[in-house]
Amino acid sequence: xxxxxxxxxxxxxxxxxxxxxxxxxxxxxxxxxxxxxxxxxxxxxxxxxxxxxxxxxxxxxxxxxxxxxxxxxxxxxxxxxxxxxxxxxxxxxxxxxxxxxxxxxxxxxxxxxxxxxxxxxxxxxxxxxxxxxxxxx
Length: 137
Hints:
The chain is mainly α and 137 residues long. It is built from 6 helices and no strands. 64% of the residues lie in helices and 0% in strands. Helix 1 (18-31) packs parallel to helix 3 (47-61), helix 4 (68-82) runs antiparallel to helix 5 and helix 4 (68-82) packs across helix 6 (102-125). The longest helix is centred in the C-terminal third of the chain and has 24 residues, at 102-125. The termini are far apart.
């Protein structure tokens, strides 16, 4: 839920074009839900953008070397750092559905805050990167 009104109206399923409905149907099938969230409804004004973004999200968030909860935690961290209210809410809900506890959320946000602070200090002070941190080979 973002503050204020959307820049473009939400495109509801019943008002969507056939191309948009195809993406909506895939989103619901993959997520095993019976609704489309508002992020996709605003992207639907550009069906190619909607399809491309959904395909990328579906691929990146699919099972891989990182488990689903870890991927959601990373998404929360980046969203909080970027100040994306909608994404922070959306991925916090997703992480909770994958088993994230309140203690994990609070610890995650503490790490995010610390990383942002030390990143700014390092960027401002410009210490040279230690040779021990460089990749071998």
